[in-house]
Amino acid sequence: MTINDIARMMTSRERYQRQSAEPKLANGSLPPKGHVNPYCPEGMDITGLKASDFKIIPVDKEVEQQVKDMVLDDMKKYYGMSGPDGNNLSDAIKAYLPKIPVEDRKHAGHTLHQIHNAEARRLNDFIRSRIPGWQHGQAFDTSILDEYQQGIDTMA
User: Fold this and answer.
1) Is 48 left (phi over 0), alpha (psi -120 to 50) or beta?
2) Terminal CA-to-CA distance of the chain, rounded, Å?
3) CA angle, corner 85, sides to 44 and 71, nearest 5?
């Protein structure tokens, strides 16, 4: 072993000791109190929140109707599958959120997702009541959707 090898070992030993002496955050730990995520729109940082922390809040009727229309249009075009044009629900939510108070934004986003999911379930139930055994992505005569009334459950 040469003097250079000994010096390299000592340097790496000191570096290792310094690293282990620094306090490290555990994987998945929360940022310190008061931390602002620069990559997150104001009011949308959901770090550390649980599903029970979100609440359903009233949203504009126009936006609610827009979300329901999106579900119906996607069903007509893509038979219950995602389309190639991206996530239009996300775009609608991003356009709506700047219009409301900061403290309501994460709840409004959650509410619009819940409206979307509920309408999609109602639409799926409606189609399956007309076409037993229908599966997502399976083509069907979209004229049956003319009978569909948004927001009304067909299953008893």
Assistant:
1) left
2) 83
3) 70
Q: What residues contact 50, with CB distance under 8 A and at least 6 apart?
A: none
CB 44 within 8 A of CB 97: yes
Round to whole Å and give the CA distance between 58 and 62: 12
Which distant-in-sequence residues (6+ apart) come within 8 Å of 124 by Cβ?
Answer: 80, 136
pLDDT band at 5 (very low <50, low <70, confident <90, very high): confident
Amino acid letter, residue 136: H
Rg of the chain (C-alpha set)? 26
How far does Cα 8 stand from its chain's mean position? 49
Is residue 34 predicted with pLDDT exceeding 80? no
* Pairwise CA distance, residues 124 & 119, whole Å: 9
The token duo for 72 is 């119906």
pLDDT tens sequence across 97-124: 999 999 999 999 999 999 999 999 999 9
